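Prompt: I keep going back and forth on a fold encoding question. Comparing notes only helps if you start from a blank page. Show me how you would write down a chain together with its backbone fold. Please set it down just below, with no commentary around it:
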Amino acid sequence: MSASTEAARVAAPANALSQSVRDSLVLAQRNLIRMSRIPEMVIFGLIQPIMFVVLFSYVFGGSMQIGGSSSATAYKNFLMAGIFAQTVTFATASSGAGIADDMHKGLIDRFRSLPMARGAVLTGRTLADLVQTALTLLVLAVVALLVGWRVGSDGNTNAGRVLGAFGLLLLLGYAFTWIGALIGLSVRTPEAATSGGLIWLFPVTFISNAFVDTSHMTPWLRHVAEWNPFSATVQACRVLFANPGQSTSDAWPMVHPVWASLIYSVLIILIFRTLSVRKYRSATA
């Protein structure tokens, strides 16, 4: 075969899926390196959930009745599933702010000019945030153990069920980062993304079973809380951790919390990833 023929050969296009995975991992690595160069991002991300653990445990502990008991220990064991879930969902704000910052600096426009998979920039960002969330959860679990949280405090559990609970938490956090990605692409500044990423999270996390027993809520509010995707993951964690305060409601997400948590999280990923990638194609700085 002549040299000219060889030069004229057109390379076969790479498999789209493998290219998307490769591009996403490269960008995830890029985001992780950037995070490691700004350690205050990780430190501040750790301080907030630790403050929630300490404040809720020692301020509200003893004043809440959980399963007929008002002991501070029972509330700590009840509380931690809610704090874990709140922590992974609050990562939404950082995802949105990061993407809005990249938009503001014109970095997204540069990525769009490169021969990359369309969703790789967003997938890389959300995967990097997932790694940071896993690190935060690990530190938070150690703090929780130090303040008195114990798995198996209201029944039997095992390592597999505990790891499954943390897996559900990470899946919920990953799902919510796609909501943050859409917010980040829809606003003009990182400040707006931070505010927009948090403002709707407060009703989502507080109208739930995270911090109080939903049986004490008014009926309409209790129904909202029991069908809240956030509540499903909290209930699943309490079941898998064997912690007290598990809801006795006959609402489907409370009866089948593990399946409900999985279904909710997958649906959120499918819906918001599709919307985010569509927005990414047309968004301008």
Summary: The mean pLDDT is 85. The CA atoms of residues 82 and 210 lie 4 Å apart. The first helix runs from residue 3 to 8. The chain has 13 helices and no strands.
